[in-house]
Input
Amino acid sequence: MILELAHFQILAAALFCLGLYGVLARRSAVMVLMAVELMLNAVNINLVAFSAFRDISIVTGQVIAIFVITVAAAEIGLALAVIMRLYRRRGTVNVDEIDWMKG
Output
């Protein structure tokens, strides 16, 4: 079976939709972060697939995907620290109950 670019796009679209559903439907901040990571991985799949099918000598997509992975790792580390602080202060990580930023 020969994989074409459309197969990777369908996979990335499915992962992105699952991540979007997770962001919109979940109440736990940890689950929302996992859904955001899923969306970023869908973008990485698209970047690498477009780069691989475009030209073998141009690695721009792979380089950008490495930067996205690096930024995602930093984001998840910082976000988990914030979530742990919220849990210690409020006793919950439910995003519906976090209202201390309101005016």
Summary: The CA atoms of residues 5 and 49 lie 7 Å apart.
